[in-house]
């Protein structure tokens, strides 16, 4: 239940909250067919482990742009390898003194990241920020081919059909059992996690 889970998550700061077990982490991605077909596209595949952010962004699948959300599992070792290559997607807060230097480095990056405010189920922004990760499509497919990323078909579709329960007091809303994902200090530094 959301009312139980919400009290166990950090209220503020930058956190990577996710469902994970000893070997895998679950992420969400809007369904865009060309990422899984024969075409190679230049834009990143944007994913997030945050169910609440993705569902709010997709207006609980009522948005014409996000009518299907894919659930993908990534091997934790592969996921952490991806994070080690992460580069700030936005100049502001990137730590670069020159926007030109930031642009040059961004052009060579195969993984990007940005932090955005998380949401309560009724769309209110929270003090907590969640991580968005953009992986270059070629890099993404390399992990898919090696079976380090796979589509998860075991998620109950009822999770995505709960818009009627997204108004207070949220008593009937059910969410995945997410918790803070443990990260090495080196990865935290790359992701500009200050707390």
Would you mind describing this structure in some detail?
With 195 residues, the protein is an alpha+beta fold. The chain contains six helices and ten strands; from the N terminus they run αββββαβαβαββαββα. The protein has helices at residues 2-5, 51-57, 76-84, 99-108, 137-145, 185-190, and strands spanning 13-14, 17-18, 24-30, 44-47, 69-75, 86-88, 111-119, 125-136, 149-151, 179-180. The strands form three sheets. Strands 1, 4, 6, 7 and 8 form a five-stranded mixed beta sheet that branches. The protein has a three-stranded antiparallel beta sheet with strand order 3-5-9. Strands 2-10 form a two-stranded antiparallel ribbon.
Quote the distance from N terminus to C terminus: 27 Å
User: Overall pLDDT, averaged?
Assistant: 88
Radius of gyration: 17 Å
Largest sheet: 5 strands, mixed
Helix/strand/pairing category? alpha+beta
User: Percent of residues in helical segments?
Assistant: 10-25%
- Count of beta strands: 10
Taken as a percent bin, the fraction of beta residues is: 25-35%
- List SSEs in N-to-C order: HEEEEHEHEHEEHEEH
Unreliable runs:
33-40
Summed up, the helix count is 6
Which term fits the overall shape? globular
């Amino acid at each position: 239940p959301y009312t139980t889970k919400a009290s166990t998550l950090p209220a503020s700061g930058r956190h990577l909250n996710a469902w994970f077990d000893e070997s895998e982490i679950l992420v969400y991605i809007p369904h865009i067919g060309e990422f899984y077909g024969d075409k190679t596209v230049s834009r990143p595949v944007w994913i997030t482990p945050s169910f609440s952010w993705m569902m709010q962004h997709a207006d609980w699948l009522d948005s014409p742009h996000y009518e299907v959300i894919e659930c993908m599992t990534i091997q934790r070792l592969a996921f952490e390898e991806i994070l080690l290559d992460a580069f700030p997607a936005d100049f502001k807060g990137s730590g670069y003194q020159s926007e030109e230097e930031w642009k040059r480095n961004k052009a060579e990056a195969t993984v990007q990241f940005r932090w955005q405010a998380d949401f309560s189920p009724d769309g209110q922004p929270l003090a907590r920020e969640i991580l968005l990760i953009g992986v270059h499509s070629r890099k993404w497919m390399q992990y898919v081919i090696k079976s380090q990323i796979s589509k998860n078909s075991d998620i109950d579709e009822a999770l995505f059909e709960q818009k009627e329960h997204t108004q207070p007091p949220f008593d009937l809303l059910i969410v995945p059992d997410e918790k803070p994902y443990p990260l090495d200090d080196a990865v935290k530094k790359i992701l500009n996690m200050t707390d």
